[in-house]
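Bit of a strange request maybe. I'm writing a small parser for structure token strings and I need a real example to test against, not something I typed by hand. Could someone generate the tokens for this chain?
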Amino acid sequence: MAMSDMHGLLPDLREQPVDLVLMAGDIAPDYTGHNKDVAIEWYTHEFYRWCKSFVRADKIFFILGSHDYALETYYPLLYETFGTHSNKVQFMHNETRIYRKGDRELSIYGTEYNVANRQYAFSKTDKELLKVYMKNNDFVDIVMSHEAPYGFGDTNSQEKDERYRNMHMGSVSLKKYVQRMEPEILVHGKYHSGSHYRGRIGNTEVYNVCLMDENNQLTYKPFMFEI
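Reply from user aminoacidic:
Good idea to test on real output. This should exercise your parser:
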């Protein structure tokens, strides 16, 4: 199961048991964005309790997103609660984790970096992102990115500013990385009302897994897949 951009709305997922859940950023409510102590408190208490009680999964991997302003500097504090590999809920910061079940292994690369020219948290220019992605030369099965690859689910048809409505806003560098490494699946968030239909880059399936629309209404369902 994959999802992103809940912005504090945490649905009851107990009726959808799965092996692995991927959360691609902007999970916390917006009021936590600029307050480090409030953000850490929310993730380590309310979010953690929800994961334990309302998500039926063997493992949960999550990344931060473009609205986690306060944690851009203080994200290492999350490792104190979510850094243990034996934990059900694990935090990822631009890194690869392995999910194991029986004799099966899945490698997941999770990255919160996004293209916004530093207007939002964890944002970089696309040229800077290219350097980030070029350092990753190991094959992975799944990419979990807050950013979208350019041309795939990366428009906002409900954008209030007409200058950016229906304009592709994703990362060219991420698209190049996917073309080079060919993971089986890429899931991303950030663009609430972007296309939620399957895209394909070569042999890689691409999905926008935002749950909210541009009015911050819980509109879409978590994406379910087998691999």
